[in-house]
């Protein structure tokens, strides 16, 4: 069982669609996209992590997990200069990545460029309140190399992507049970993996991910709107030509 932040009931992917997982990390969303029959590109700047993703793609193919016709590959590069032609992808996932990028507007403009007109984008970032608490509890949490450089409000995230040219769709929160774990980690030391309380809570989270019991599903449904660790917003690239104002926003980015 994989921990997914994007809701694939809201963000439906059809077999044969070309889908980019931008900033794929360990590949959790890329693997799900592959299982759903997409032609997946897992993109990241971390070559070592991508090597592990490629191994998993190969293992999935060997086990016959993806439907016939699906494909998956890894690509290394920079989010500010995606190595793909305009209008390449039917859908894009950008999960827990924009908060790491200093020039987030330039990355957003690249996402718009490589998405087909009418295509959909799923963006997830840490939610404002849980993230503010983590920053307050631990400096190491957000100052480590490659760490988070900003805390988004949902309004800011939506406003930035709208100014680039995206249409804003619906949203939801995810991982309400995970926010307390990160507060504990920040309080005892983000690298203190031996802390008994942190270890015990982590075991609960692993059990929940694997078993998906009804009690924790109901608890998370209640907690998500309040302390969900991530906020997920869905966007669409308009099919109409970009306006002059949007072109100016692109130039400014």
From TrEMBL:
Species the sequence originates in: Actinoallomurus vinaceus
State the source organism's domain of life.
Answer: Bacteria
Q: Which Pfam families match?
A: Methyltransf_11
Record has Transferase as a keyword: yes
Q: Can the keyword Methyltransferase be found in this entry's annotation?
A: yes
Annotated ranges, domain Methyltransferase type: 20-122
CDD domains membership = AdoMet_MTases
Q: Which GO terms describe its biological process?
A: methylation
Which InterPro entries does the record match to this protein? Erg6_SMT_methyltransf, Methyltransf_11, SAM-dependent_MTases_sf
What's this protein's name? Answer: Class I SAM-dependent methyltransferase
Give this protein's Gene Ontology molecular function annotations.
methyltransferase activity
**Keywords for this protein:** Methyltransferase, Transferase
């Amino acid at each position: 069982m994989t921990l997914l932040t994007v809701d694939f009931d809201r963000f439906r992917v059809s077999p044969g669609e070309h889908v980019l997982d931008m900033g794929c990390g360990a590949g959790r969303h890329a693997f799900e996209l592959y299982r759903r029959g997409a032609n997946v590109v897992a993109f990241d700047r971390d070559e070592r992590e991508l090597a592990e993703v490629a191994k998993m793609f190969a293992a999935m193919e060997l086990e016959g997990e993806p439907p016939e016709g699906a494909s998956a590959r890894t690509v290394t590069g920079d989010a500010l200069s995606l190595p793909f032609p305009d209008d390449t992808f039917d859908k894009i996932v950008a999960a827990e990545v924009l908060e790491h990028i200093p020039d987030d507007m330039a990355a957003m403009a690249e996402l718009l460029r490589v998405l087909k007109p009418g295509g959909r984008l799923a963006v997830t970032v840490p939610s404002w309140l849980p993230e503010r608490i983590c920053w307050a509890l631990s400096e190491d949490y957000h100052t480590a190399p490659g760490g988070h450089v900003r805390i988004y409000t949902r309004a800011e995230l939506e406003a930035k992507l709208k100014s680039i040219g995206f249409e804003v769709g619906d949203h939801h929160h995810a991982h309400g049970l995970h926010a307390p774990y990160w507060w504990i980690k920040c309080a005892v030391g983000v690298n203190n993996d031996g802390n008994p309380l942190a270890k015990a809570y982590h075991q609960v989270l692993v059990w929940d991910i694997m078993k998906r019991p009804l009690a924790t599903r109901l608890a998370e449904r209640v907690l998500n709107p309040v302390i969900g660790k991530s906020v997920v917003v869905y966007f669409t690239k308009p099919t109409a030509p970009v306006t002059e104002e949007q072109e100016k926003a692109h130039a400014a980015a």
